[in-house]
Amino acid sequence: MNMDKIEWIEVGPGKAILGSNRRSILTGGVGPRHQVSIDRIFEISKHPVDPVVSRKMIEAGDASLASESEWALAKEVGAIHANYGTSEALADSITSYWGKQCDGRPYIQHDSVRHRRIRTWKKKRVTESSRAEELTENMPKRLVRRKTDYSGDALVLPHRGDSARIIFEEIVICMCLGVVPSFVWALFNASPGYIAEGWLNLTLGGIFLGISTAVIWRPKTPTYIQEGDKWRLG
Fold this sequence. Notes:
234 residues; alpha+beta; 2 domains; four-stranded antiparallel β-sheet; 11 strands
């Protein structure tokens, strides 16, 4: 792809939702689910750009890697496309969204191993993943041209989740789906005196059963919605 053949689409201002509110092991994703609000206009490449071309443009200062927030807004308004099977790299490098500034700028967590956020276009939907930065060098890139750089203060997600609420949920789940059913089963099926003698095994087994349900189900976490300079949980 030649630089002159890149089709640029103007996007923004607008809002978009990112992140997952699912906590189960099988279906959970990177959280928390949150709203970003971009108050400026930017141009984004309609299609992912060849890695060699994108590298030259970024090094020359002619374009930047799109952030997840910019990508999400562009996707929301139908501005971007790609062939099925295409994986493209974005600017963000994260393990979670906690502490993110939510005005559209890339969110880069400085961990020992950098992971780029990836979007893969499939027939029915676009999937999200992360890959080590060195594995994304030869991937197509989604580029943006910004009239102004992101600067100043922005609404920031909390730096951690509500641990007390999560612990309370886990206790309730273990009791309702594990411990109580174990004792009910023993009451109707075990030999007389088993509950008095084996209560510890029943309790530990119930706790294990309750925890194991995390594989397929956990209550959804709240979505952080922007309302002025504050968050509303929805």
